Amino acid sequence: GHIKAMNRLGTMYQKGEGIQRNSLEALRLYKQAALNGNQEAQLNYGAMLFAGEDVSKDRQSGFLWTLIAAKSGFSTAKRNLELMEKDLTAEERENAKQKSEKCFINLKTCL
Fold it and tell me: What is the pLDDT of residues 57-74, one digit of tens each?
């Protein structure tokens, strides 16, 4: 349960729901929950990195985390991948896909 709560708290920080908006804290919470296997957090973490929403933009890492969530069967992540792929070069997509194979086996290697 606490991993789900981390993701939810990340959303609250990201959107400023009931607390002061803090994108860096949202990103930190999403990352922690993502590393613990929460698919929704993996998607949220990837989306924030990809968009560079008040954090450093890293499209390839954002795509990677969204890909991990999609490989876990999260259908929303699969839809987001299609949109993200249009903004990446073929090389960026391939690099992320190769790295995702290792990451999917051990999420700690994704750092």
Answer: 999 999 999 999 999 889
Q: Quick one: average pLDDT of 85-103?
A: 91
Q: Above 80 in pLDDT, residue 111?
A: no
Cα distance from N-terminal residue to C-terminal residue, the chain: 23
Query: 45 and 68 in contact (C-beta within 8 Å)?
Result: no
Positive or negative: CA dihedral 34, 73, 43, 26: negative
**Two tokens at 80?**
């987001």
Cβ contacts of 103-108, under 8 Å, gap ≥ 24: 103/64, 103/68, 104/68, 104/71, 104/72, 107/34, 107/35, 107/36, 107/37, 107/68, 108/35
Per-residue model confidence (pLDDT) at position 103: 86
